[in-house]
Amino acid sequence: MCAPDGHPMAVARTFKPRRRRMSQTRSAAFAELLPVFGLDVEGPPTSAEEIFERSAPVALEIGCGAGEAAIASALAEPDVDLIAADVHTPGIARLLVDLHSNELTNLRVIHGDALEFINRLPTPTFTEIRIWFPDPWPKPRQRQRRLVTELIIGRLVPWIVGGGRLRMATDIDDYVEQMLAVCLAHPELDGGIVVRPSDRPVTRFERKAVEAGRVVTDLAFVRLL
Predict the structure, then answer these.
(1) Residue 155, exposed/middle/buried by CB under 10 A (0-12, 13-18, 19+)?
(2) What pLDDT score was predicted for residue 26?
(3) Any domain includes 122
(4) Into how many domains does the chain fold?
């Protein structure tokens, strides 16, 4: 995509493409279950009510990995509908298997970029957007690849209902600073660092961080009415 002057336009993405191999079993599960539980990134307009066939609070988890937090949240919160998104194919395959085995009706999966998918939904839609332990991209030259940037948060906020929340967690200190700076600079967000919420599932990323002696920080921002 190019700007009027012919130069390439910056495209907001929630990920940096990576490729991983899958076992035959995982590949078969992915092929079988994605058409059942997956949501197409591109397609006609839709709504959470149409997707889940009911009216309920709906959350979006971006960068769900293998789905540990998504599965735990869907089990613990049956009255909340959850859409979990990631581009990591093996992780999505594992999530699909766990979703199927737990017979969850309040969880659906996006294999692709959440920023593209949300264009199919009305604004606002989500009572929460969740970003748990996004890739830190620690090297200075990699910082532009981080998920929490002014460009991406600016794209997400219109899809949060008034009074809804943007919730994040990370074990990287300078990412905490970046999250705070980006979100506090947005005129429709208010919040900051919070005590670890009891409803946020513990994932392997958090366990590894704690074992390595790193401090995990939770942040929550409310979209102002």
Answers:
(1) middle
(2) 81
(3) yes
(4) 1
